[in-house]
Structure of FAD dependent oxidoreductase domain-containing protein:
Amino acid sequence: MASESEKSGGAEDLPVIVCGGGVIGCALAYFLTEKKKRVVIVEQERIAAAASGRAGGFLALDWCDSDEVGPLARASFRLHAELSEQLAKEGHDTLYRRVDTLALSIRGDAPLPEGAAKKGSLPAWLNRGVRGVSKLGTQETTAQVQPRLFTEALFDVASKRGASLRKGSVTGLLFEDSSSSSAKGEETEVAGVLVDGEPLRASQVVLAMGPWTCKAAEWLKGAGSFPRVTGQRYHSILMRPKEPITGHACFCNDEGKGEDFEIYPRSNNDVYVCGSPDFGPLPDHAGLLDACVEEERVALIKALSDGVSDALRECEVEERSCCWLPFVPDNIPMMGKVPGVRNLFASTGHGCWGILNGPASGLAMAELLVDGESKSLNLHPFSPSRFATTIK
Ligand SMILES: Cc1cc2nc3c(=O)[nH]c(=O)nc-3n(C[C@H](O)[C@H](O)[C@H](O)COP(=O)(O)OP(=O)(O)OC[C@H]3O[C@@H](n4cnc5c(N)ncnc54)[C@H](O)[C@@H]3O)c2cc1C
């Protein structure tokens, strides 16, 4: 809980308020507290309640090299390896490991001939339907982490260094009296947030609410400029085979059904499978995500994974889930100061790579907030100001 001084705003050293306890908010809190900053995370449900607790956790060194995200992804891939060791020292096993990654093309679900796996590079548990296999990544270039454990571990270490969690919904921004600043032509100044309508003062505010960051456009009440933040829904399931299967991450295309899906076996013997994007309105609150799960999507993902493996065919669905990925209009994460508003920052729009890119995003944003600029990453391509002239 926030202290009384934070509520009243009497303290000189006000905290940074991070809105949203997903991987982006928790990684930021981790690095801010490493820099001795006071941090309050305001989270409406629980840490890792949304996509950050429901994602695959696949990590790739060089899969974003074709656009501006490349340096961020490379830095973050390396940081994951370091963090897994540091978090382990704090007692957290985040199931981080390097993996081999395959692309599979699938047609039908007929059993493969005996010994098919031995002839090619196919693991034995992929014994149905596979018509083609190629290598997408090696243990040098691809890895995985359990996203919920990772996000919770980041928060736990941040909280040991003094970060606190304020349970509640951010419902608006707290503005300093703008009459004098607007008369002088200065930026509007944010002095904190409203949590369920109650003021909570801050030195700086960071919007990291994943797809729900869309609400900030309304909170700004015409001050500054903010792009449209949207969400894209995905479903996933979790299974536990009787016998452990190899840790190959598989990107599958079922040519017959016209569906893409991904299979991520984890080191604790869980197998996570997610399907293609589907459509549904973003619920108002992360606590409503479980109620948004559609059984037809779950059944489709189960049928797709049954089609490639007897080991998966024998499994029950242990967990079913859906969540929304956060996007901004150009699909490049948006990280930096919100133009036209002093003390207000955003870190969102990480799309399908938020678990990968969370650590380097958190480090770069912590440097920006504390030191005024990021030395670890050029944040310029990610600046919210790129939307300032086009979208209001
Ligand atoms: C099926 C699926 C698989 C994925 N697989 C991978 C993968 O393999 N690798 C990878 O790198 N990425 C993956 N991703 C993407 C990744 O999960 C996201 O990019 C990332 O989790 C986004 O994190 P976030 O912190 O921005 O948002 P979120 O995780 O959505 O967190 C936002 C938080 O803000 C809180 N919040 C919202 N509104 C408010 C409010 N008003 N007040 C207070 N709190 C609020 C929510 O409760 C939530 O906890 C996957 C995503 C999906 C959906």
In short: Residues 19-25, 42-45, 49-52, 55-58, 169-170, 208-210, 212, 234, 236, 274, 286, 323, 325-326, 348, 350-356 surround flavin-adenine dinucleotide (CB under 6 Å). The mean pLDDT is 93.
